[in-house]
Amino acid sequence: MRVGVLTGGGDCPGLNAVIRGLVRKGVQEYGYEFVGYRDGWRGPLEGDTVPLDIPAVRGILPRGGTILGSSRTNPLKEADGVRRIKENLAKHEVDALVTIGGEDTLGVAARLCDEYGISCVGVPKTIDNDLSATDYTFGFDTAVGIATEAIDRLHTTAESHMRVLVVEVMGRHAGWIALHSGLAGGANVILIPEQRFDVDQVCAWVTSRFKASYAPIVVIAEGAMPKDGEAVLKDGTLDSFGHVRLSGVGEWLAKEIESRTGKEARTTVLGHVQRGGTPSAFDRWLATRFGLHAIDAVRDGDFGKMVALQGTDIVRVPIAEATAKLKTVDPKLYEEVGVFFG
Amino acid sequence: MRVGVLTGGGDCPGLNAVIRGLVRKGVQEYGYEFVGYRDGWRGPLEGDTVPLDIPAVRGILPRGGTILGSSRTNPLKEADGVRRIKENLAKHEVDALVTIGGEDTLGVAARLCDEYGISCVGVPKTIDNDLSATDYTFGFDTAVGIATEAIDRLHTTAESHMRVLVVEVMGRHAGWIALHSGLAGGANVILIPEQRFDVDQVCAWVTSRFKASYAPIVVIAEGAMPKDGEAVLKDGTLDSFGHVRLSGVGEWLAKEIESRTGKEARTTVLGHVQRGGTPSAFDRWLATRFGLHAIDAVRDGDFGKMVALQGTDIVRVPIAEATAKLKTVDPKLYEEVGVFFG
Amino acid sequence: MRVGVLTGGGDCPGLNAVIRGLVRKGVQEYGYEFVGYRDGWRGPLEGDTVPLDIPAVRGILPRGGTILGSSRTNPLKEADGVRRIKENLAKHEVDALVTIGGEDTLGVAARLCDEYGISCVGVPKTIDNDLSATDYTFGFDTAVGIATEAIDRLHTTAESHMRVLVVEVMGRHAGWIALHSGLAGGANVILIPEQRFDVDQVCAWVTSRFKASYAPIVVIAEGAMPKDGEAVLKDGTLDSFGHVRLSGVGEWLAKEIESRTGKEARTTVLGHVQRGGTPSAFDRWLATRFGLHAIDAVRDGDFGKMVALQGTDIVRVPIAEATAKLKTVDPKLYEEVGVFFG
Amino acid sequence: MRVGVLTGGGDCPGLNAVIRGLVRKGVQEYGYEFVGYRDGWRGPLEGDTVPLDIPAVRGILPRGGTILGSSRTNPLKEADGVRRIKENLAKHEVDALVTIGGEDTLGVAARLCDEYGISCVGVPKTIDNDLSATDYTFGFDTAVGIATEAIDRLHTTAESHMRVLVVEVMGRHAGWIALHSGLAGGANVILIPEQRFDVDQVCAWVTSRFKASYAPIVVIAEGAMPKDGEAVLKDGTLDSFGHVRLSGVGEWLAKEIESRTGKEARTTVLGHVQRGGTPSAFDRWLATRFGLHAIDAVRDGDFGKMVALQGTDIVRVPIAEATAKLKTVDPKLYEEVGVFFG
């Protein structure tokens, strides 16, 4: 048995841990051989491979990024894409393909498997934690940890100058990073894409915080939007989901707060720092187990499935279903956390 | 409504987050008053209280330890213990008691509630993660993170000198910390209390690692035991569970490895560092939610219950059941991780 | 003897360590009393004080920010400023004033001491490390550590996507943070305010890095400027030093690199995260020793002096001289580091 | 010109940064070739080499340990050692040798250079910071940072249980790590090898700390010794310097404190964790600059010299002098820090 492996979409701490898990168990327990495909779907499309064996995965567990490289290439949008992939898999004698990626990458895998008979197993990867079939995705815990440490640091600078500090974190369509890091960091306001925010309400929280002689921290997901439609029409853009987005929403909000409350406000945009570097212990554990269970699915011939975390168990779910629905923040959970606002 | 709060047993990162969650929601949403009891069960036993209101819980979220102090006092072993507790609760006009603690502390709460009619709600606390009713307990993720970072560091020193490094981590009766940190840290051998280890097998793994030109890291839980009974009889002691324990098992194993393989071996005992300091973002999230849900249980009059994590939900389970059985490492999970040994 | 203490200007990890050092030694060894002034020069100007004794400084060593608060109030620009300060010092029976701050704060202290006879001792504080009389200032090491960790993380994301990552760090007039964190983080280009950069040269380094199959990291100080004058004239502004500055120079450079090399480029602006949170061990050591030596200067009646680090010794230098000249990066040192560019 | 490089003695974060600095500048600026010798003096003694060029040093800056390996082999104690080294250097066409190491390694380099005409340049390496010719050695800042973070964590566990926590850190003959981490961590007692301690005085400090309602942290260097001679005679051993040492002095002291004060005491021995893992930004900066300046010394033909830090400058000093005298903690500095005891 020869197994191809690829990683697609944005990078995420834990990708290398998945790859290591796959290869260690595949080689040692099942005697499989592996073919690494470079840069996501571009690899099998163009026949671009890298050697993938036990020496290749030594020492990669604590390293961020992906030793296979990544891209957003979509073979279904390429002329002859499916045929070329089939030819290359045949040429490399690859019997099954483990695809590690988000909605886009896995969506392709689901179609290649269901419609074109390519044997695919999926491993979910989204730093935003917004996949409905799994309790958590790897990379999310690392991102939350980095954002929380940043918020911890910003508290002292906010207090020393009695300023508002607005922290913009990742999350275009789901507010999980904002919600977790905002709660863990003791933020006074948390704004998420799932619920349009009222700037006046935010200013009221900010002001009440100052009255208690503390300086407020506002955590805002990059995809959060104000209720006020006009601002949106003027500055917003349509993203790939057809959603209106306000570019630089953190900066925009800081200016609004300044002008409405008269308090100084500063913005910090955490950006790519959240998705790089060594994975947390939690993410190494989760990603490694995803790798171990994905190769078991290959051995079982259980294709078209994706590994997922439910409680403390790794289970398998159909890729197509798993990627069909975004997991957004439940309004009840947001309300639960709201007790700390203001 | 006046609610008493106490923290018992060993300290654990996240205790303050629980207390803050209880008080913030209790005061703001339900208009409750709080009484902090000092040093676990000693507080209600001796009537020793501290003020507990919103100012008292400001800024404590990122702090380790417990602002209430802790102890191992067991009021059921004190003359007249129950009567004295009842008197003090009455004197302080306390209607319900939130008890945050491990098996011992919660066991007392269960009996006080079930047998003596004191209204108790439990919040589980064990850094060892060995409580069967909950997927995780807070503090565990922090401990695993600290141990993993230490193992990361030890790799380089092992490689530079081609030595064996034995790392002893917490875990008297359950190997969760060893298993998670050992996997996350890329250890070559992980030894847990649930399965007696064979020193010759350990030496075989160590030797095979050297053959691949790498230096081995052995992670061992403090409660792990060799199969070899004689060593145990000579050096072991009986702990409070009536289990035989080998004091300093890491040091003992390092010496055995040296004498059997001829390779230099060094031991690091992580000790109390694992349970102190600021909680991880995961633990702050979990502990805060435990606090929020525990006060909801008080409001619902749902006494004799303990909050627990199942998947991503916080649920309530009977305290008595929850503490009846130790959650140990499933042999299948240990076998799953075993692919990385050697 | 009663000693007033104030902290002025931007916050900086280590301020609390200085305050603790002053108070512990002043009270215990010399029997002094202390008066804390709130928010920099605003405190003595308006007579706004906080109690400052041994209990007040307990536990503040690891905390960022300043328990005294800070501001940029300049009493020399206030009507009657000097008279009001003198009156308040007399009213509070303050015999000497320890002023902890940067150029502005210490410049005021120098004039109040030299021209108006107020007994001042200075402690230098600038996160940018740009004071000529001292080898290092506290807060700088913490900022460099935070920036280095961020660069470490960005490497993996750059490699995974073969993108250019531009990291903008603090440093308006001196490139110390960029130079140290860029070197420590293994950046491929480091741009500092002291030397105008040539965008084509930067692009050549970026391109050569890609040729070696690695993705480049460009570290740029916020005050760095391109040689190309037109861009500056169009987008730049004059700062308080009368220097032309290009707001958002990191973002600007990323766009230039994209358009000239055809490679994707992303920007991360570290911002306030660099100056908040717990100080590094180095900064705690340095700041504490500054505090201990500043109170010795008070005891010696050695006013108009500032404590400074030379090698491993703490010495005293005249405040006026110490703040007269900015310590910028020596061209030779920049050239030394340049061996790692490209 | 061909340059040999070796690293000897205990590992130390920053060794790889030195090697990278040497090679990058040597190859790029001077066109040199390099020969890596494996495992300290064993390499040139046995002719055991590894390739050392620019690809070999890519990515090693943030990694602890040494890519060259290390050992304590002393060629002057080997039969024919000098002749064999000379033969191997000739065979590999090595013109100069850069030796990175502590007292022992550099002592050999000094003699080989001065007595046998081998062209050596030294780079000092001691995690204990106990070399008199340089303000700091790399690795020390990393060790202090790790120890400080551990002490930070132990505070909360000490407070929660009102226990004494004794932390044993590295430092056999010099107390620098204990002094810096103890001060930075807010320890209440710091004990160093330079000054025998009085257990009763330690107990008095411990007791006074409890009276202020805080729990004490005692930081002790592994080489610290009590005044009480009898204990020493019973448990102590002679180390390689001929000094009496008390093995496990932290554990010993904890027991003494328990029996004399009646308070619970616990010990944490930080051990090898202090010397492994990624170097701090400070150490990467210092080590890199040592590498850059050492290769300049080779180019200048300035043999028998060692690079050293004086203030912010890298200078050259004769190896023989530099290693002749241990840099111990000045009693005045210890007294300065003593204001925080108790």
CATH architecture assignment name of the largest domain in chain A: 3-Layer(aba) Sandwich
Largest sheet of chain A: 7 strands, mixed
Class by helix and strand content of chain A? Answer: alpha/beta
Question: Could you please say which CATH topology of the largest domain in chain A applies here?
Answer: Rossmann fold
Read across the widest sheet of chain A, the strand sequence of neighbours is: 3-2-1-4-5-12-13
| DSSP strand tally of chain A | 13
Broad CATH class of the largest domain in chain A = Alpha Beta
Which regions of chain A are unreliable across 5 or more consecutive residues at pLDDT < 50? none
Oligomer: homotetramer
What is Rg of chain A? Answer: 22 Å
Percent strand of chain A equals: 15-25%
Number of helices of chain A: 12
Write down the domain tally of chain A: 2
H and E order of chain A: EHEHEHEHEHEHEHEHEEHEHEEHH
Q: Whole-Å distance between the termini of chain A?
A: 59 Å
Q: Show the largest interface.
A: A-B, 38 and 38 residues
Large-scale geometry of chain A: elongated
Helix fraction of chain A by DSSP (H/I, runs of at least 4):
40-55%
Keywords (chains A, B, C, D): Cytoplasm, Glycolysis, Kinase, Magnesium, Metal-binding, Transferase
Pathway (chains A, B, C, D): Carbohydrate degradation; glycolysis; D-glyceraldehyde 3-phosphate and glycerone phosphate from D-glucose: step 3/4
Pfam family, one (chains A, B, C, D): PFK
Catalytic activity (chains A, B, C, D): beta-D-fructose 6-phosphate + diphosphate = beta-D-fructose 1,6-bisphosphate + phosphate + H(+)
